[in-house]
From TrEMBL:
This is Zinc finger BED domain-containing 1-like. It is found in: Nucleus. One of its GO terms (cellular component) is nucleus. The keyword Zinc-finger applies. Keywords: Metal-binding, Nucleus, Zinc, Zinc-finger. GO terms for molecular function: zinc ion binding. It comes from Brachionus plicatilis.
């Protein structure tokens, strides 16, 4: 018998069983006189029709495969039920919109019939046209674009000040894989050299478009040194957009090599203005009150005149909060010599007026207060450097039912830190003294215990310094213009310092000391005679009624 006849005979014998439906798939190998196949026999009696949704439940049997033609020919009864056929779950949401009827799928919405052999894309198109507003997406998009995800990843790292090496952390990788297994984290190299560069270019272009629409801009600049003694230079631009909303944009943060002379800083600032195309839009710039910053204006105007800009004058405004910080810092640098000669200084310049303001008693009071401030610094250092002292302090705070706050240290470069340190030590005076007496510290810090007079002095000094702290905070705002509140705040401070309500000798002396230096700095920098500050004050409806007897320009502005 030929090979074709043998195969034909096998199929004929199998199809004689009317109770079976044959699904045959396989390959004939005529050279080896065998064929490999898988024959799935489905019992017709197992088809059960569900009247509700016309769905069919099928029970399948697997017949042994890889049998020779001879075995099929001689023993057709060897075909028997095997293990159940694996049922695959239909995961696509498309199948919930159709029912199976025989060899067709009927759409529940339009009654259209499609073959079971059709792909789900055909059914998807039909359902999309049948449904006006589908509740859920019918299928997942195959083409995934992770550009937005990479942008959000970069923004997360930058906003949280995290290192780029976080993308190589094994647990972070597992976390991302759990959220989306298909997302591939970019490498640290990709973040640094591609994503950051692209995002920087995108933001820079957006800022440039905003500055093109701005009619006038003001800039603030400052310089500082890092822990590694690298010098940096930062420039921030402020303007109103087309919706009259105040906007602030950082234009530059870069290394500033060489000495920080006024000429070098002016050249660096001019390069930034030219790079951003706002040379002809700048009307003012704000700096601290150091000598090199005060001399920037002339060098900057010389550079601007070399361009085609029509700018002939630029206002330089010294940051008042910096002045207030210098005034308060005087109490930490107190000495009898400086008070008797009344020297006042900026960060870059020392000058002596030679006008005596304190008598011997007042001089002694201020010297004692300066010693108290230094003593408070030592107390703060103890609880920051000793873990045992910190634990003892927490125990004493719990026993006293006082909130367990940490002691704040006085840091030279942090504004208001002296006031905050004195305020916190006064609030925690009881637990601090109890902790310093505790035996666990071996009586090493008993000399730092605050006596009753020192506590009273702390209380008075905190009350006097609080207006300076509030003024510094108010003048440091970035969400509102501060130029119009400079003069009102100064007048309010002077009024507070001149108040006398049965105060102690220390309070009177301390106010006298602060009042003198406040006037000295304001007169030196001519703050109350600045026409721009006066005009801004008058244009603000909340501050226009503040009068300034010392400023002759005030009358000129009000008459206009």
């Amino acid at each position: 018998m030929s090979k074709r006849s043998s195969a034909k005979l096998v199929l004929e014998q199998l199809t004689k069983a009317n109770d079976f439906y044959i699904d045959f798939s396989g390959d004939f190998d005529y050279e080896e006189e065998t064929f490999e196949s898988e024959i799935y026999l489905f019992e017709l009696s197992d088809f059960k029709k569900d009247e509700s949704d016309y769905e069919t439940n099928v029970e399948a049997s697997l017949c042994a495969s890889q049998s020779s033609i001879t075995s099929f020919q001689e023993t057709p009864t060897s075909i028997h039920k095997g293990r159940k056929r694996k049922e695959y779950k239909k995961t696509s949401i498309v199948h919930s919109h159709s029912v199976v009827v025989g060899d067709s799928q009927i759409c529940k919405h339009c009654d259209a019939a499609y073959s079971n052999k059709s792909t789900i894309s055909i059914l998807t198109v039909d359902i999309d046209t049948s449904l006006d507003e589908p509740d859920k997406p019918l299928y997942k998009k195959q083409k995934k674009n992770f550009t937005k995800a990479e942008e959000f990843l970069l923004q997360f790292i930058v906003s949280a000040a995290l290192p780029f090496i976080i993308v190589e952390n094994s647990y972070f990788k597992k976390f991302v894989e759990c959220l989306n297994p298909g997302f591939v984290l970019p490498s640290r190299y990709t973040l640094t050299n591609h994503l950051v560069a692209n995002e920087f270019s995108k933001i820079r272009n957006r800022f440039k478009l905003e500055l093109i629409k701005a009619q006038a801009v003001s800039v603030t600049l400052d310089g500082w040194s890092s822990i590694q003694q690298n010098s940096y230079f930062g420039v921030t631009c402020h303007f109103f957009n087309e919706l009259t909303l105040l906007c602030s944009r950082t234009l530059e943060i870069s290394n500033l090599p060489g000495s920080h002379t006024a000429e070098n800083i002016a050249n660096a600032l001019f390069n930034v203005l030219r790079d951003w195309g706002i040379v002809d839009k700048i009307v003012s710039f704000v700096t601290d009150n150091a000598k090199n910053m005060q001399n920037i204006k002339n060098y900057l105007l010389e550079n601007i005149r070399t361009t085609e800009s029509k700018i002939s004058e630029i206002h330089h405004i010294g940051f008042l909060a910096h002045l207030l910080n210098l005034i308060v810092k005087k109490i930490t640098k107190f000495s009898s010599v400086s008070i008797e000669t009344c020297e006042y200084e900026t960060e870059e310049q020392n000058e002596t007026t030679g006008i005596p303001i304190l008598n011997e008693t007042e001089n002694s009071i201020m010297q004692n207060f300066s010693d108290l401030v230094n003593n408070c610094r030592k107390i703060a250092s103890v609880f920051h450097q000793s873990s045992i002292a910190c634990e003892v302090l927490e125990e004493k705070q719990k026993l006293s039912n006082i909130k367990p706050n940490k002691i704040i240290q006085d840091i030279t470069t942090r504004w208001n830190s002296t006031f905050l340190m004195l305020k916190r030590i006064f609030q925690q005076k009881g637990p601090i003294n109890d902790a310093l007496r505790d035996r666990k510290l071996n009586n090493k810090y008993e000399y730092l215990i605050l006596n009753e007079n020192e506590i009273i002095t702390l209380k008075d000094s905190v009350c006097i310094l609080k207006p300076f702290s509030d003024a510094t905070t108010e003048l440091s705002g970035v969400n509102y213009p501060t130029i119009s509140i400079v003069i009102p705040i100064l007048l309010s401070l002077r009024y507070k310092l001149l108040e006398t309500n049965n105060e102690s000798l220390f309070s009177t002396t301390f106010k006298k000391y602060l009042h003198y230096y406040t006037d000295s700095y304001l007169n030196k920098h001519k703050v109350l005679n600045d026409s721009l500050l006066i005009t801004a004050t008058y244009l603000n409806v909340r501050t226009k009624y503040f009068k300034i007897p010392e400023a002759q320009l005030y009358m000129r502005v009000t008459r206009r």
